[in-house]
Design goal:
Blueprint: H1 8-16, E1 20-23, E2 28-30, H2 31-43, E3 52-56, H3 60-72, E4 76-79, H4 86-95, E5 100-103, E6 108-111, E7 143-148, E8 158-162, H5 163-176, E9 184-186, H6 194-204, E10 209-211, H7 219-225, E11 230-233, H8 235-241, H9 245-252, E12 256-259, H10 266-274, E13 279-285, E14 290-296, E15 299-302, E16 306-310, E17 315-320, E18 326-329, E19 332-334, E20 343-352, E21 364-370, E22 375-377, E23 380-382, H11 384-391, E24 397-407, E25 411-420, H12 426-434, E26 445-448, H13 461-478, H14 485-493, E27 499-502, E28 505-506, E29 509-516, E30 524-530, H15 533-541, H16 546-554, H17 557-561, E31 566-567, E32 580-584, E33 596-599, E34 609-610, H18 614-625, H19 631-637, H20 645-649, H21 651-656, E35 664-673, E36 678-689, E37 692-705, E38 712-713, H22 721-734, H23 739-744, H24 748-766
Parallel strand pairs: 1-10, 3-4, 3-5, 9-10, 9-11, 11-12, 12-13, 25-26, 30-33
Antiparallel strand pairs: 1-2, 5-6, 7-8, 8-18, 13-14, 14-15, 16-17, 17-20, 18-19, 20-21, 22-23, 24-25, 27-35, 28-29, 29-30, 29-32, 30-31, 33-34, 35-36, 36-37, 37-38
Length: 767
């Protein structure tokens, strides 16, 4: 056991001086190497005692070294998520009085955001003294870090910790989860989160090594090739590793798997137990510097240096040597403790005596929910966590997050976001829930959990609730009688050409629009010639085209790449959750003036072509459509008496097939879903094969709520699971496809994964 005092680094060196401490893809450091390099960096900095410094780095080695260097100067390290928008980042730093940042690229401190406060190197000091202190001396009781909470139930709070908080958290954790010299803990959690910082302190006080994961290498490959023994992860990561043989092999070599961050499916723990994996579930918080209690299957034993009690209202209260110093804002440090030092966590829990899953005779702590996520619906209390636990028992549900939305009748109602590993009907899901929950607790609406949210350590319920509210409003209005709905649908649909639509071509290859969505206020596009979307993706990821994306960000694209990005007019669009969107163009969407076109087979240098002209194509299309015996015209101008009649009236047009030679075409149609109070303009893609037509997939081109005057373009991320199911049901009823077609086609579920996978590849290649 180490003494937490100013000499703790020297104690560490006495025990582990020549043990490996940090292992990256290119090199490794012993404890002596790393602390020595941090000391040299510290010697060169003129950081004042307790000065707050924002660390601006995506390099884990530099970030770790910079933190230790700052602590040797008695300064305060503030790591932030690099993905936070610059404006929000500045606001957060101003809120806590931080005016300095450190950028490892220049290896110098610079002012943020006021240049007159810039810190300079301090060449005058030697390596034997640091501001008059002993070598490697630290001040464990002073402020050391400011970590922002995830803001999952509100605005992020700035949490102040001392080094003593972090050291005692690690000492208690290491007693419960043995960690020894020679062990290796993968740095799988970010350093701007307490779960990442905890790995640093646990390894430092145990003689184990931190392993920096290599970029562009799969998680299973990293675990196997780097001889990792300890691993922190969230349930989704564990689920995915368990789906492959290589993943299971990687997990089987681990001494310990620390699982937390979200509700954990019982089936996931059972599968892990069958494989003999040592999975420890953990309960903690930012305020408590990470772990409070650890155990099996959600039954936790409180770790050393922590105290836990359950208040009369079942709220969990904690105190101890790991407890934070307070919340920091513009007005100063606020310490939300009672006179005896107890902190109310906001979590709801209970003690479970002599639980069979408990190791020993100590009572287990069980967390049942959050006070701030509980809401009242029609006078009844609803805890989202209770519903989530039941949802995770259904089928192959990987993740479940339940949020409250406002409702005029009941005050609030539950909506569930789901990530599942299989298709299942909503009626089956509701029947399952109604057998296990009171009826008022069954969610009214089920939505797909956004793919780009899955990697978050803790789900932001506030943001998910905002995302769910408009979908719930549509669902609620869809249950209200409105005789004018069909008339509105007729009027809306008459704006569009329905039936077979020709795919835009250039030399027998398709024309795509590539939308650059990285700057929402300045979206631009390129037009590309390719055989498929996949080919466009490969072009984007090609190393030779890196300058295309890098220069695009600098706003000097014409000079350096020869590519002309075209501004995109502001329209009402769906949510933007990706850097690029690839859209297949139809003939009638071609620009009327001369527009540059580029070939995705080019790499590095790009020859400018010209887009096919819209006027000529339109004339040719009109001639071809005249052969369809007037069906298209009749459909486009018809008044439908019901939402189903639109589909039925297009059946003759669909059966005629398209008369042009190209092997793919789009069938455009409309659907009105009264239940959701919404209208959809659909595009179905088909390929002509020897046996007939092959259904390739469908998409919503436009969506409009009946009470709205504006269409929403490309509302891909707004579609609820219910809307997807209803649309697919209508497509099957109309004869435009079959249930079997959906098993082989590009459904929205498959498309969400494809887009998320591509975004991950793009981030890894160009971040």
């Amino acid at each position: 056991m180490f003494d937490v005092n100013p000499n703790i680094l020297n104690q560490v060196l006495e025990h582990y001086e020549n043990q490996p401490f940090l292992i990256s893809e290119k090199r490794s450091w012993t404890f002596a190497d790393f602390i020595s390099e941090a000391r040299l960096l510290s010697d060169s900095l003129m950081a004042k005692s307790q000065q707050r410094v924002y660390l601006n780095s995506e390099n884990p080695e530099n970030l770790l070294k910079s933190m230790l260097a700052l602590w040797m100067r008695d300064a305060v390290a503030i790591p932030l998520n690099p993905q936070i928008p610059e404006k929000q980042k500045i606001e957060m730093l101003q809120k806590i009085g931080c005016t300095f940042s450190y950028t490892e690229l220049q290896h110098e401190f610079k002012s943020h955001p006021t240049p007159e406060n810039s810190l300079q190197p301090n060449p005058a000091e030697n390596s034997d003294t640091i501001a008059g202190k002993e070598v490697n001396s630290l001040n464990p009781k002073d402020w050391a870090t400011i970590i922002f909470t995830s803001g999952s139930t509100g605005s992020p709070k700035a949490v102040v910790h001392s080094l003593a908080n972090h050291f005692y958290n690690a000492l208690g954790a290491n007693e419960r989860m043995p960690l020894n010299p020679g062990d290796r803990w993968l740095l799988s959690m970010p350093m701007y989160h307490v779960s990442g910082l905890a790995i640093l302190f646990r390894t430092m006080l145990s003689g184990a090594a931190i392993v920096i994961p290599a970029k562009k290498v799969s998680l299973s490959e990293t675990l196997l090739s780097r001889s990792v023994t300890h691993f922190s992860l969230v349930p989704t990561q564990l689920y995915r590793l368990l789906q492959t043989t290589k993943g299971k092999d990687a997990l089987s070599q681990l001494k310990l798997i620390l699982l937390g961050g979200a509700s954990i499916p019982e089936t996931l723990l059972e599968q892990s137990a069958q494989l003999g994996l040592n999975v420890q579930t953990t309960y903690g918080s930012t305020e408590m510097a990470s772990q409070v209690a650890t155990g099996k299957s959600g039954f936790y034993q409180v770790l050393p240096f922590r105290e836990v009690r359950i208040a009369a209202d079942n709220e969990v209260e904690v105190r101890g040597k790991i407890s934070f110093l307070g919340y920091l804002d513009e007005t100063g440090l606020h310490q939300p403790f009672d006179e005896n030092g107890w902190f109310k966590t906001g979590d709801i829990g209970l003690w479970c005596s002599k639980d069979p899953k408990n190791e020993g005779d100590v009572d287990s702590l069980k967390i049942t929910g959050r006070k701030d996520s509980m809401f009242i619906s029609g006078g009844e209390n609803i805890h989202p966590e209770e519903i989530e636990r039941i949802l995770l028992q259904f089928g192959k549900t990987e993740q479940a997050v339940v949020v409250a939305v406002q409702d005029a009748e009941f005050g609030a109602r539950p909506v569930a976001f789901l990530k599942t590993g299989e298709d299942s009907s909503e009626s089956d899901l509701k029947n399952f829930l109604e057998k296990r929950l009171a009826k008022f607790k069954v969610p009214d609406l089920f939505l797909a959990l956004p793919e780009l949210v899955e990697s978050e350590i803790k789900h932001n319920r506030v943001e998910l609730s905002k995302l769910a509210q408009p979908q719930f409003d549509l669902w609620r209005k869809g249950n209200t009688k409105n005789d004018s709905k069909t008339a509105i649908f007729n009027q809306w649909l008459n704006q569009f050409q329905l039936g077979w639509m020709r795919v835009a071509l250039s030399e027998e290859r398709q024309v795509f629009s590539l939308l650059d969505l990285r700057d929402k206020g300045n979206m631009q596009r390129l037009h590309l010639r390719a055989n498929s979307r996949k080919e466009v993706m490969e072009w984007l990821l090609a190393t030779e085209n890196r300058k295309l994306l890098e220069v695009r960000q600098n706003g000097d694209q014409m000079t350096k790449t020869g590519l002309k990005w075209i501004p995109v007019p502001a329209t009402k669009r769906g949510a933007i959750k990706e850097s690029f969107e690839i859209v297949r163009l139809l003939d009638d969407e071609l620009p009327e003036n001369k527009t540059p076109l580029y070939d995705v087979q080019d790499r590095g240098t790009f020859k400018t072509l010209l887009m096919p002209q819209k006027i000529l194509i339109k004339k040719l299309t009109e001639n071809l459509q005249s052969n369809l015996s007037g069906h298209l015209t009749a459909v486009a101008s018809k008044t439908f008496q019901s939402e189903h009649e639109c589909f039925n009236s297009q059946a003759p047009v669909f059966k005629i097939n398209w008369p042009w030679e190209f092997h793919e075409a789009v069938f455009q149609t409309g659907v009105f879903l009264p239940k959701l109070n919404s209208m959809f303009l659909l595009r179905c893609l088909y390929r002509r094969i020897a046996s007939g037509l092959q259904f390739l997939g469908w998409k919503v081109q436009l969506m409009r709520e009946l009470s709205c005057k504006d269409n929403m373009e490309h509302p891909f991320w707004e579609l609820s699971l219910e809307a997807e199911k209803l649309i697919e049901t209508e497509l099957c009823k109309s004869g435009l496809c079959s249930t079997n077609d959906f098993r082989q086609a590009n459904t929205p579920k498959i498309e969400r994964k494809r887009r998320a996978d591509f975004q991950t590849k793009f981030d890894n290649s160009f971040s």
